[in-house]
């Protein structure tokens, strides 16, 4: 049997060889030529060098030294004047409450984002001090590596209940909150529609996501719908790609760069009409808008379940550090594995978490604080109307508004210099203001230069009237020389 099997195998191999020779003779000439060229090319690639050494003449030691002496290195940073504002910071002594000591001079504070006056609140300070004695100064580890303390879990639970959301997650740095949340969901190939006035933290999050970005005009719903319609037509042409492309709509509650509120009800309608997810950044509106300070959703009476993700920092109204995101549990839990600021940064110091919890207690126990803040915002807004040479930008209920030049002086540098003279004039007379600063070369849509005016609940009506009168005096003195 074995001998017969070997005979059959040999006969089969001979038959295959005969077929190959026969096919070779029957093949057309161009086919044989092409195969021959490919074989020769493969042989050449196998035996040839992958690169050629550049021929050069060796330099003598003297020539090398001369070249080294002639070489001038490029500066690491561009030359900067010693008078540049970044090199001449105002120095604050003591807590930046409604009265602040700047460069040794006591001033009325219209620059700090301490909206609810909690920064120097005794209850908040006592809670932070008790936590400091119990836990120490910091955490020295991210949340996944022994950086999760019971006070962190309590703060997340309290924020979720306050916002009436299923779950919340906290970050240790306010800027990193939205900048980490965006790339956790939106990836390369996804599509994000974003307002052109979006703050710099949002811009960095978009850049990290590597998604396709489409900017619409500030608060212009017609322009946004135009972009959504165009994308809808694109999706109809390529339905296979459309099925795997996620679409996001990214807005701020109150815009940091303009002080204007987003038209949330209209945005929600567009969300359901064009099947996009809404991300809402509320750092300026949380603890400010709404009967209980829950932000722009409460202000408009929009159900929080209509918003896919809400983000805000705790560095304004809560007078702490860090930020939070809230929403449905399955959305928030995704950040615990994908939010870079959450996974790789040391967690929030427990004393600051305790301070934020006490801030929430005050907000819940005294909801009249939001009505009082709104009244003071309206007061300063009315007082700043109609100042010759200046244009007031923002909502009457926004705690942060902008004073821009009514007419540019020809260049951004000239406008900035002129507005800084107004800021310095007021500072020298006891009113602390600041210009809104931007990274000019990195901003996607650079806002015009402006003086930012910030209102806190601690400011008295007399202080607000005094500040408005001094700003008007500064404008008349400087802009009409």
Structure notes:
The structure is a single chain. The chain is of the alpha/beta class. The chain is 47% helix and 14% strand. It has helices spanning 2-26, 29-47, 61-70, 122-135, 150-163, 174-185, 200-209, 221-237, 239-244, 264-274, 296-300, 329-338, 340-344, 350-365, 368-383, 412-428, 461-479, and strands at residues 92-93, 99-102, 105-109, 167-171, 191-195, 212-216, 247-252, 277-281, 309-313, 323-327, 390-393, 400-405, 431-432, 434-435, 451-454. The protein has a seven-stranded mixed beta sheet, sandwiched between helices. A four-stranded mixed beta sheet has the order 1-2-3-13. Strand 2 and strand 3 form a beta hairpin.
In brief:
The chain has 481 residues and is of the alpha/beta class. It contains 17 helices and 15 strands.
Which spans have pLDDT < 50 for at least 5 consecutive residues? none
Radius of gyration: 32 Å
Distance linking N and C termini: 117 Å
The portion of residues forming beta strands comes to: 5-15%
State the shape: globular
Please summarize the sheet with the most strands. Answer: 7 strands, mixed
What proportion of the residues is helical, as a percent range?
Answer: 40-55%
Strand order of the largest sheet: 4-10-9-8-7-5-6
Number of helices: 17
Let me know the number of strands.
15
Assembly form of the protein = single chain
**Mean pLDDT across every amino acid position:** 89
Structural class: alpha/beta
């Amino acid at each position: 049997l074995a001998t017969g099997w070997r005979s059959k195998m040999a006969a089969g191999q001979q038959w295959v060889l005969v077929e190959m020779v026969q096919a070779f003779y029957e093949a057309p000439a161009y086919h044989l030529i092409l195969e021959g060229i490919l074989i020769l090319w493969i042989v050449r690639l196998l035996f040839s060098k992958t690169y050629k050494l550049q021929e050069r003449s060796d330099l003598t030691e003297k020539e090398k030294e001369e070249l080294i002496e002639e070489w001038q290195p490029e500066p690491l940073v561009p030359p900067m004047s010693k008078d540049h504002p970044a090199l001449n910071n105002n120095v604050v002594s003591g807590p930046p409450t409604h009265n602040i000591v700047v460069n040794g001079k006591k001033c009325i504070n219209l620059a700090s984002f301490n909206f609810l006056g909690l920064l120097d609140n005794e209850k908040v300070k006592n809670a932070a001090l008790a936590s400091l004695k119990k836990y120490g100064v910091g955490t020295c580890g991210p949340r996944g590596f022994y950086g999760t303390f019971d006070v962190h879990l309590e703060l997340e639970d309290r924020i979720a209940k306050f916002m009436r959301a299923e779950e919340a997650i906290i970050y240790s740095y306010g800027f990193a909150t939205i900048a980490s949340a965006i790339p956790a969901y939106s990836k390369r190939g996804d599509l994000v529609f974003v307002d052109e006035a979006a703050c710099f933290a949002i811009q960095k999050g978009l850049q990290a996501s590597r998604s396709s970005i489409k900017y619409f005009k500030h608060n212009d719903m017609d322009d946004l719908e135009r972009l959504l319609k165009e994308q809808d037509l694109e999706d109809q042409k390529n339905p296979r790609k459309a099925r795997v492309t996620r679409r996001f709509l990214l807005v701020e509650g109150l815009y940091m760069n303009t002080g204007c509120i987003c038209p949330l009800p209209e945005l929600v309608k567009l969300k359901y009409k064009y099947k996009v997810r809404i991300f809402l950044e509320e750092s300026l509106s949380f603890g400010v808008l709404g009967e209980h300070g829950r932000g722009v959703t409460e202000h408009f009476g929009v159900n929080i379940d209509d918003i896919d993700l809400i983000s805000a920092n705790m560095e304004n109204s809560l007078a702490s550090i860090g930020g939070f995101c809230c929403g449905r549990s399955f959305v928030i839990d995704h950040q615990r594995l994908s939010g870079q600021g959450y996974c790789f940064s040391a967690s929030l110091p427990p004393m600051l978490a305790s301070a934020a919890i006490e801030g929430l207690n005050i907000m819940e126990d005294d909801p009249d604080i939001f009505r009082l803040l709104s009244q003071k915002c309206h007061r300063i807004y009315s007082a700043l109307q109609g100042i010759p040479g200046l244009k007031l930008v923002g909502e009457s209920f926004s705690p942060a508004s902008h004073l821009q030049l009514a007419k540019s002086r020809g260049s951004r540098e000239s406008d900035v210099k002129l507005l800084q003279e107004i800021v310095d004039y007021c500072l020298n007379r006891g009113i602390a203001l600041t210009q809104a600063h931007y990274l000019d070369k990195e901003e996607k849509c650079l806002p015009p230069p402006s003086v930012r005016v910030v209102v806190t609940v601690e400011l008295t009506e007399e202080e607000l009237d005094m500040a408005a009168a001094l700003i008007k005096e500064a404008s008349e003195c400087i802009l009409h020389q």
